[in-house]
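User: quick one - fold this with iron/sulfur cluster bound?
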Amino acid sequence: MYALKYDEDTCLKCRTQDCLAKCQYIDIDKESAKKEILKIAHGEDSSVLHDCVTCYACEEYCSFNNHPFYLIVEKQEELDIPPLPRPIIKRGIKTGIPFRGEPTIEKINGRALLMGAFADLMHLIQGKLFEGLPVISTDPRKMFHYFCQLMYLHYARNSVIKERLPKIIKTIAEHEVTEVVCFHDECYGTYTSYCPAIGMEVPFTPVHFFEYLYNRLLELKKEIKPVKLKVAYQRPCSSRLSPDKHRFVQAIFDLIGAQTVEREYVDENALCCGGTMEGQRREGSRKRTADLRRKNIEDMKNAGAEVCVFNCPACYNTLGQMLVQSGIRPVFMSDLCRVAIGEKPEGWR
Amino acid sequence: MDSVYEALVEIVGPEHVSSQPEELFIYSWDLGTTEPHRPDYAVAPRTAEEIRKIVQLANKEKIPVVPLGGGLSLAGLAVPFKGGILLDLKRMDDIIEVNERARYALVECGVSQGKLTAYLERHHPHLTHSEPGAPPAATIAGNVVIHGQGDLAHPYGFNSDMINGLEVVTPTGEICQFGSCAIGAGWFTLHPLPDVGLFLGWTGTTGIITKVSLRLFPCKKIRGMAQFVVDDEDLVPEVFYKITHTQMVEDIMATSQAIPPFSSELHHFTINIAADSEKELEFKLEIVFDDTLGEYIHKGDGGYLGFIRGLERPQLSKTSDWRKGGGFEYVGSIMPIEQYPECYRRGKEISERHDIPYTVLARCIGTAHAMMFSWTYAFNRADPKTIEHAREALHETDDLALELGGTIWKPGLYGQRLVMEKLNPNTLELMRKIKQLLDPNGIMNPGNWEAQ
Ligand SMILES: Cc1cc2nc3c(=O)[nH]c(=O)nc-3n(C[C@H](O)[C@H](O)[C@H](O)COP(=O)(O)OP(=O)(O)OC[C@H]3O[C@@H](n4cnc5c(N)ncnc54)[C@H](O)[C@@H]3O)c2cc1C
Ligand code: SF4
Ligand code: SF4
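Assistant: Sure. Structure tokens for the protein plus iron/sulfur cluster:
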């Protein structure tokens, strides 16, 4: 019923093969890249299907919006080349099953903030920045009713996303929301990139969390005191699905007086947190991920970062402890913004 | 005022004795499905000498004495089935000595797991003990009495194998010591004196332990937990075997439970790893997850879920809120690890029959010498029907543990009967004689281990 909008002709005409040529995890030249992407499009086995670490980045690298990553994932599923071991896939798929009754649906008739599967992080949306903004998915026991499901791209399980997502969208829509500020990049990517790519309708307008924060900070501009911290940003995989919103990271930093450090692994060249990579079937995954994390944090440290700013709670979980050990403070963007307007987020010293 | 009450007041002082129904009420229950029984007196002694006097009084009056630690053993083991004196040992909670170099702690019987953990963390960060997954109020003595196991069970065995010395008040009121302490030396070893292993596993029916010298072990700077998951229960025994072969890890447990959904029909290993440096940690992770379990990962049969730094101690299994009403009880067994698949399948079947979300757990004891396998059944405390279901499931599981070639760990009365029916008759007779010799009036925790 839902079909991926992928156009082979676009790839045939493409001169860059940026999707794979820019991939940080697969070493491949332009010529082979073309061959491989076409093999994938034809449903043939390709080394890429085995070596892809599911970092999402090729969705951004392809300037023709031809969805190379969604294509890879579809073919991984079709050809039964799962990136992760079977038990992790089963575990992941079961994780999203709601199991503690139905959520309470409150009609909103306007804009709302959607916590998705992070209802246990309500402490991150406190204070003036969020005043007057109704919130959806506030009960950790019921939050999987709002889980965007896009995580299953890492599991090569498009089928699960397609099967469950309509129900999720319906549940959100039942709140009668017009605009939905997505707490997590992944929800935003789901509704603005994945859904259109497969022809699934979204009956509300998604708003990127950072765009919301930026605009709210503008409203509170008078209260901003420069935080004067040297910051690095950990870009999450799902932000590759909304590269047009990535600019708000810098815009916010400029607004709140945070100084972005000069790094090698930044923006398009950002490194994955490794959350999904370390468990992958590909030989050496654990060790490769440990090295990747070290490289990432070393880069922040060498650049003089005092703080590493996060959008994604999963990245925060995977890198947080290592950062602290390296003397860099992990902090969520919303908390940093709160500090800028003189508030004291939970645990802030 | 009755004379026993007065005599007890004489021994421990009025504030440490009660015969008030509201206070006796709380001593009549444990957390599990056992029917409550009210004691006649609750007494909280402070010294072994006071205990000695209480026991002498009980012998004179021929009334039961039931020792109580944290009261968290769940199987009704400290429920005063025949009334009498409930001996609440929590006031005896001095940590008498920690010997850093010989690595042991000498504690009074009321010292809780939580207290020892906190004390060691603060004063002896290089030392740790094998902490069970019980709530922190569980006592060291109550745990060794029932052959408990903690988070160092894989490298070092049962907690009752970690005893360097004991002080015991016998049922007839003598204070005895066992181990090097008995000859006036330090509390550093239980061996090589003649073996008088009469107090462990007897659930307080052969005496009251008043002091325990417990072995401590190196506590490394980095301690954390890795997770590994398989979806085929038949793989679990060989994974245990392979991990234990590396001798690189501390605790190893496998769990499976119906709730939350992500754990259902999957088997999650939690593997505690400790290291003094990043180099040591990486080396261990490499040996365990790349070299030893890598083949499962590559084939897609097993998944590495990462290593989390920092141990949450105790590592409690969370099941009590699967049901409204917050009750649960489990059957524990000591079982050959190769029986994991059958234990899991049959346990799940029992749970489903009784409409209880299944929860099973296996902890490796020694170098895969055995496992403690437990089946937990949740119930609603306010709903007698669900309690009855859980009780039936527990009894069926006691039968199952024996049928599968295991032994029941800390059995309640029903399980004790099953074990005694199976016991070698000469052994049973010897147990009966020992009990008769030590406790001629049968005052100690009556109902338990009563060989006919
Ligand atoms: C959630 C949960 C998890 C658990 N996990 C574990 C685990 O991982 N490992 C484990 O081993 N156990 C576990 N347990 C079981 C139990 O709680 C512990 O073994 C605990 O250490 C028992 O100690 P206690 O002080 O509560 O004993 P109690 O229940 O007070 O007593 C146990 C028995 O010993 C007798 N007794 C108590 N003190 C003395 C004494 N000084 N002298 C003689 N007899 C005495 C009592 O009469 C009773 O028969 C768990 C329990 C719960 C509720
Ligand atoms: S997916 Fe995009 S970048 Fe890759 S070959 Fe096709 S058009 Fe080019
Ligand atoms: S998702 Fe990442 S690893 Fe996979 S092909 Fe695209 S860029 Fe490479």
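One thing worth noting: Residues A 10-11, 14, 16-19, 37, 62, 64, 66, 68 surround iron/sulfur cluster (ligand 2) (CB under 6 Å).
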